[in-house]
Here is the input.
Amino acid sequence: MAITKSAKKAIRQSAKRNAQNVVYKNNIKKLVKEARALVSTKKMAEAKKLLPDIYAAFDKAAKIGVIKKNNASRHKSRLTKLIDKKN
Here is the structure.
């Protein structure tokens, strides 16, 4: 357990940041899962309409530092390729 005042503060900061990061990651996971479900049911128009929201979620997470920029780019690219390929 933390003893010093600064260590206690670091624990509080870490918990707060972790909670916020989980929100961003869950949002991304939810959107990607929804898009993949639409692709598997051959609903390409709806999947394409969902892409801007997915891009925004990935870009926001990358900007804040939840995920790396190239990680976001890679996922966006692969998802777009999946939707275009099935079209």
User: Anything to note?
Assistant: Residues 5-40 form the longest helix (36 residues). The two ends are 55 Å apart (CA to CA).
